[in-house]
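Example (one chain per record):
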Amino acid sequence: MADAIQPQMGLHFEQVWAALMENRKQMQEAQQETDRLFRESKTETERFLKESKKETERFLKESKAETDKHLKELHKSMGELSNRFGELAEHLVIPNITQKFNALGYHFDDIAKERKIVNPETGQTAAEFDILLENDHYSIGVEVKSKPAEKDVREHIKRLEFLRKHKDKRGDGRTIRGAIAGAIMSEDVRLAALRAGLYVIEQSGDTVRIEEPRQVGNW
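Predicted structure:
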């Protein structure tokens, strides 16, 4: 009679427990490795972000310095260009201005460029006229700008008011009038000057033309 096949015995409790413990150990090691990799990744990310922030701040600082430099150079160039336009405007205005005003009946015999009015109390220049035309009866102060603005009109009126006070103190009763000249004159500035009683002097070809206000201002 053939030997009977013995049924295979099941795993013992100790074997099952040992397998569970081994699996747990492997899971813990895997978790620890995952945590380690996460910490390293986080540290690397933080380091990268910190370095990126520093690099960005450095770049922005250098860009700002470069931009400031270019703006400073641009402002300087614009100032020099404005001065050259101002000189050009004066060269256009001065050679023709007495002739143009004389055609209006003034007959000026004296023209001064960059005439300074000194405040006797302080000894400092209180007003300066680009051009001052004078005869026995009138003084006309002319402000010359490459492109006058409305504030230039207001400032010129204050200049004329100071000239009036200055002449009154000296017993000079000549009538004071004003004019504003520009190589480029906007319509708003032109109208503001005329409303204020100022003559408006504008470039016209290779000479200038003078527009007389409806009511000439006297100071």
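Caption: The mean pLDDT is 82.
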